[in-house]
């Protein structure tokens, strides 16, 4: 959330010091890095990684302008800064940012006026040619009279570049398809295969037209959508007739990969390869869902091109694309501000280069311009749009599978466990669990009990084995007819992976807030529900979020954070479960299922809901039977070899018990009719265990369900 305060007394707005909004440290003003970009770009992980390294030197503070300020405030009200990081992306007011740079005259990492050159592909190609950087052969179809050069950028366009653009616009003439493979623009021709690019650099709908000998058709490239980056349309294809386009010779690149180059300054460049989108349009991703890229070395010529590109466009931080084919390299596109994703080595180098350049500017008295109050203006921290507070609501981290047994019991010792007045009781402590165990012993031994001996025996057996585990608890709720519903729960505790997740989130949140508004770190409060896994998550998060060695503020445990379910809501939930159970236990196709309604309709592939659940249950039963045979065949020593180390206080026997319970809960027998009843609510338990074991017991999971003769 953002808020705008009025300036306090003594601020620049009422005639006080114009430097009041600039950070002070030990009697001297700390140089400020201003980040002026759209929020999605300004607060991206790569940007945060570089800025955090610069901030960690102790030589700078970071100020984010924020979209609200950039879009709605006059440039006179924008924050003062010594070093400016500002770059164009969709929606960014580039002309306004250039006006700010002329007004305040900070040291700008990337030239704002030269960023106008990047908005038109014709301008990019002409500038590259003038800088001596090779590009694919191309012809231009200018239906708009040539690039519209912003008045703020006209003085940075070299006269030779302007002359080339004017000549292209004058000689574009009529665009005509001479034959199936040849395109003529004015007096120039180009033959397929060629690439058709909109002159608007923000338009990424790029078409590749193939020749008749290649089978014809067109591949349409676009911004990545999921795992797709292009699609092929077969058959005859005609070029687009509305708009201005650049037509480039199609280059069959070496290894079917593109090269992405990232410069920081004129001397450092990092390069990566990625699968070219022209291959099949399928994006290769790693296990984290990121596009797969691989570092590559640049040749001496390519390094020279990187320096020329950076200098020609005035962009110290810049990304561009290279095509490699038959031993030659050509620059295909220049993208402006770009950071590498996920490379710690790159972040180190980028921060080092920027730090060195900033320090050089300081040695050259760049900050002397701020001695003049007119150069800074009267904007203060208090009168800017800044992040004033953060409310962070999180679910608990990774946990062990939750398990429970519940049974309605009428034995007096069990009913006696209810709270005073017959209310619900939650029993967690060792003494409380001893009371429950004693009550179960008494009920089991009583000759007058109305409860099932098997149910009582199962509850007593499980509680005896689970009472020492963290998180084991018993809920006793009043039930109809003077009975009590006893619910025994265990599991659901934070895993070691969960604690790491919480620490990682706390560290990243701290890093972000230190960059956005470090004063927020000074007033932090933590709240938690009463669940152990939630308290463990909060404790790990708080430890990482706060300074090392700083005393952690107390965590306020709030039982009300777990809202009690109202009786009406409970009845509604129970009714929904009954409807689901009826739907999935009707023995017939979906079309004839009387319980199927518009709001309760399985996906079409589940044509027979009961048969679908029966298939899951039968598969689970076969796996459990195979597991039992493997346990008998391997013995303790063989099981230990399958997975020597276990986490979360588990072992092979507990793994077996959990999977056997899943099968037992999934498929039960109706006492009245003897019919098999499937419980669709147990699909969630099955998913829970599969996910947990895939993460924490993968070696055992992959082997214990194999055929015995393959072990």
UniProtKB/TrEMBL annotation:
Domain of life of the organism encoding this protein: Eukaryota
Record's keyword terms, sorted: Kinase, Transferase
Protein's UniProt name: Inositol hexakisphosphate and diphosphoinositol-pentakisphosphate kinase
Organism for this UniProt entry: Coemansia helicoidea
Taxonomy of the source species: Eukaryota, Fungi, Fungi incertae sedis, Zoopagomycota, Kickxellomycotina
Gene: VIP1_2
């Amino acid at each position: 959330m953002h808020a705008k305060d009025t300036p306090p007394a003594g601020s620049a707005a009422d005639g006080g010091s114009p430097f009041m909004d600039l950070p002070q440290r030990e009697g001297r003003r700390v140089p400020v890095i201003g980040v002026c970009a759209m929020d999605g770009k300004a607060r991206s992980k790569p940007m945060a990684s570089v800025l955090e390294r610069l901030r960690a030197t102790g030589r700078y503070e970071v100020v984010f302008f924020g979209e609200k300020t950039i879009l709605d405030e006059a440039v006179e009200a924008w924050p003062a800064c010594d070093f400016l990081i500002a770059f164009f992306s969709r929606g960014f007011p580039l002309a306004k940012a250039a006006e700010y740079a002329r007004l305040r005259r900070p040291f700008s990492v990337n030239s704002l006026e030269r960023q106008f050159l990047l908005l038109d592909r014709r301008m990019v190609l002409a500038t590259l040619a003038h800088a001596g950087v090779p590009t694919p052969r191309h012809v231009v179809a200018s239906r708009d009279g040539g690039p519209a050069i912003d008045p703020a950028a006209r003085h940075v366009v070299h006269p030779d570049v302007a002359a080339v653009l004017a000549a292209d616009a004058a000689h574009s003439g009529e665009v005509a398809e001479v034959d199936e493979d040849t395109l003529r623009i004015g007096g120039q021709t180009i033959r397929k295969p060629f690439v058709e690019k909109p002159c608007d650099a923000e338009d990424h709908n790029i078409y590749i037209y193939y020749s008749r000998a290649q089978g014809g058709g067109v591949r349409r490239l676009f911004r990545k959508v999921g795992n797709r980056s292009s699609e092929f349309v077969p058959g005859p294809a005609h070029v687009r007739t509305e708009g201005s386009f650049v037509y480039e010779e199609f280059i069959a690149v070496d290894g079917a990969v593109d090269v992405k180059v990232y410069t920081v300054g004129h001397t450092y460049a990092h390069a990566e390869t990625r699968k070219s989108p022209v291959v099949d349009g399928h994006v290769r991703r790693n296990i984290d869902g990121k596009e797969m890229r691989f570092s590559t070395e640049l040749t001496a010529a390519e390094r020279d091109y990187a320096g020329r590109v950076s200098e020609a466009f005035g962009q110290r931080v810049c990304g561009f694309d290279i095509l490699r084919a038959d031993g030659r390299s050509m620059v295909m596109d220049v993208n402006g501000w770009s950071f590498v994703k996920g490379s710690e080595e790159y972040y180190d180098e980028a921060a080092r280069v920027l730090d060195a350049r900033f320090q050089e500017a300081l040695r050259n008295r760049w900050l002397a311009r701020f001695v003049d109050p007119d150069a800074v203006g009267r904007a203060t921290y208090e009168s800017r749009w800044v992040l004033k507070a953060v409310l962070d609501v999180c679910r608990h981290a990774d946990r062990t599978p939750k398990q429970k047994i519940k049974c309605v019991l009428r034995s007096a010792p069990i009913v006696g466990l209810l709270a005073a007045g017959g209310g619900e009781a939650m029993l967690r402590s060792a003494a409380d669990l001893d009371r429950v165990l004693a009550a179960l012993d008494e009920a089991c031994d009583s000759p007058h009990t109305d409860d099932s001996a098997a149910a009582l025996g199962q509850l007593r057996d499980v509680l005896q084995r689970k009472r020492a585990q963290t998180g084991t608890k018993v809920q006793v709720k009043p039930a109809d007819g003077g009975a009590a519903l006893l619910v025994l729960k265990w599991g659901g505790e934070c895993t070691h992976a969960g604690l790491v997740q919480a620490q990682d989130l706390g560290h990243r949140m701290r890093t972000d807030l230190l960059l956005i508004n470090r004063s927020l770190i000074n007033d932090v409060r933590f709240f938690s529900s009463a669940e152990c896994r939630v308290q463990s998550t909060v404790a790990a998060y708080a430890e990482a979020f706060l300074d090392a060695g700083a005393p952690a503020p107390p965590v306020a445990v709030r039982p009300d954070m777990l809202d009690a379910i109202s009786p009406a809501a409970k009845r509604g939930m129970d009714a929904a479960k009954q409807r689901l159970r009826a739907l999935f236990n009707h023995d017939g196709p979906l079309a004839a299922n009387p319980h199927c309604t518009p709001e309760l309709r399985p996906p079409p592939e589940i044509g027979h809901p009961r048969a679908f659940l029966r298939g899951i249950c039968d598969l689970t039963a076969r796996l459990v039977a195979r597991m039992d045979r493997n346990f008998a065949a391997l013995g303790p020593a063989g099981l230990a070899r399958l997975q020597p180390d276990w986490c979360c206080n588990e072992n092979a026997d507990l793994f077996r018990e959990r999977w056997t319970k899943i099968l037992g809960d999934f498929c039960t027998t109706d006492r009245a009719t003897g019919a098999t009843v499937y419980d669709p609510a147990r699909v969630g338990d099955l998913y829970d265990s599969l996910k947990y074991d895939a993460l924490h017991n993968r070696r055992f999971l992959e082997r214990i369900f194999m055929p015995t003769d393959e072990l």
